[in-house]
Amino acid sequence: MTNDKSEALLQAVGMAEAVDEPLDLDSLANELSTTVETIRFELDQLQGMGLISLIAEEEPPRLQHAGSQWLARRGEWSHDVLHFLPVYIDDLYARQALIHGGVVLVDVFRYQLLRGRGVEHAREQLV
Question: What is the pLDDT of residues 40-90, one digit of tens each?
Fold first, then answer.
């Protein structure tokens, strides 16, 4: 899915939510020169990344906080951030920080292991 198409879909979701109406999939497909099935698939992808919330086609969709953040940066997010715990963390900056923190934690532990202090370091972290 291209960033342009994702942006158009996220904006459409935001507009539908604002007017409290369901998405018009036929109009969206026509506007984006694609099929309704493709629109459904791409909306499922956006939902899988935690950017939107879809209950049912006849219900208004919801643009998640992460979806607003995606729009603000025009999709400039890594694949890892978009797919890291999307059901639980509705904030792309928080996802990015948790990934970074995890990398630092593992890097420090690796360093301590190489120095022969792995067990001591692990014990220190539990205190």
Answer: 999 999 999 999 999 998 999 999 999 999 999 999 999 999 999 999 999
Classify residue 9 as exposed, middle or buried by CB count within 10 Å of its CB (0-12, 13-18, 19+).
buried
Report the distance separating Cα 27 and Cα 5, nearest Å: 14
Match 């999939």 to its residue by tokens: 25
Phi-psi region of 59 (alpha: psi -120 to 50; beta: other; left: phi over 0): beta
Which amino acid appears at position 122 of this protein? A
3 state SS of 29: helix
Q: For residue 84, give the 3-state DSSP assignment.
A: coil
Contacts 24+ apart (CB under 8 A), 32-36: 32/5, 32/8
First to last CA, the chain: 46
Residues 6+ apart with CB under 8 A from 7: 71, 74, 75
* pLDDT tens digits, one per residue of 24-52: 999 999 999 999 999 999 999 999 999 99
pTM of the model: 0.87
